[in-house]
Amino acid sequence: MFGFGDQWPPDQAALAMVDRCVNGYISDLARRAEKIADEKGDLDKECYIYLVRTDERKFQRINKLMEASEVIRKARENRNAEIVKHEDLNPTVANTNTNTSTTGGVSSS
Asked: What is the distance between the alpha carbons of residues 79 and 77, in angstroms, rounded to a whole number?
């Protein structure tokens, strides 16, 4: 709120109003998504996408966030696969990584 001309610290009444608006919107969106899920069978991201499909900005934002989430998930999988592959190829590295002391990660041997 400070970026929109508010003073520091922000006005408590303004914070309370924004909090009510955001919580009301999220609660309403969740209730509507639950109604869709009751008809569909399960609550998932598609229920929320369906609700914001006519609001171009929200729809685009959801798509960007889902794409980013997928990129992060794939990067974690690749990193975990590389760690496992590296440990399989060099078992001594895996042993030194697990046998570290609390003094800065230096091996105790």
From this structure: 5
